[in-house]
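Me: I'm a chemist; would you kindly supply a protein sequence with its structure tokens?

Assistant:
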Amino acid sequence: MPVNTHPLDQIDPLAPFRDQFYLPQAKIYFDGNSLGLLCHAAEQAVLDTLQQWKELAIEGWTLAQPDWFHLTEQIADQLCRILLAPANSITLTGSTTLHLHQVLATLYRRDDSRRGILIDSSAFPTDRYVVAGFLSSQGLDPAEHLLQVAVDNAGLLQEADILAGLTHGVQMAILPSVVFTTGQLLDLATVTAAAAQHDVRICWDCSHSVGVVPLNLSVLQPDAAIWCTYKYLNGGPGSVAGMYLHPRWHDLPPGLAGWFGSDKLRQFRMERELVPAAGAGRLQLGTPHLLSLAALRGSLQVIEAAGVDRLRQKSLRMTGYLRELFRQRLPDSGFSFATPEADDRRGGHLAIRHPRARNLSLVLRARGFVPDFREPDLLRIAPSPLYSRFADCDDFIEEICRIFSQSTDLSDLSQSLVT
């Protein structure tokens, strides 16, 4: 794999963090928006937990350092610092899918005049499935009450359309902070404020923003937010997801109740009636996933050390640099940009449209470059500010130029093309 030098890498304050990650051999990895790489701190935290299990067995719940019983709360405190969220407003208890079920079960009101739940037409499938399933469980027809904001001709969401959608019998909205396909960053403050004005409870799916886009939840104040932790937070495949609940709802009973949502001081009294924990902790369900939490605890130490503001600055520079390379080196190759250009309108990845994007992705992977493909024509490129280099961007574009010099059609994935 060619390695060029780049002057921006020489002055990059985040460059030392690259050495803290396990990089795939002979590959340039641009798929951190799907799965972040393993860092040494996450690995060590898992090994430490395994050793505690080996030595302490059941007593690890109280004697491990940190003790397992309060580990969820410790990691929630880390996330509160990273997302500038009020104390006790974040918890972790499973996947984003489970969290969305919990948010709906807790915040949805039976209001005969407003039953609709608003999503976007490009919503991630799990969001659509959960909302449809929840409406059905309430005896409501998703065809009538699952409402959608359509993307425009460029495949982008317009805030004006979202605001218009908030007034049509809607009582909840589930929307992406960053659209997973195009990488478009929405105007979260404007939409959140408008939702509050219309008494619409809003939940942001922040899976593609947490860890790469600064989110000040104390200022933004949505009703809820959910996110996975295996993308830019590098928590590992299937790592426990995060969930935020605004303090105004901390006295609500959890829509889905579980033993670990109990007040920690009373949990082992085994009372017949749930006495909920303070804050978002009441939304926890079953026993915490200790090994997953351990990895996340380690990876969040790296995120905190780097600082999300610095991660954002480098991320914007890298995706901007990639855009400019496409313009300069591949002006007539059929590429168009799906991601908005303005810094305040894009998340952490650059999405490129091309009619042969699928084949191009396969060829690139065969040659040691790892981007991501989404139907029908999107090549998603996600350099991580923690471990990607500007030189990697140069090498990536150089390889695409080489591929197009060999074949402009890309329909033939013969051995001569991929070797």
User: Anything to note?
Assistant: The first strand starts at residue 28 and ends at 29. The chain has two domains: 7-30+307-418, 44-305. The first helix runs from residue 7 to 10.
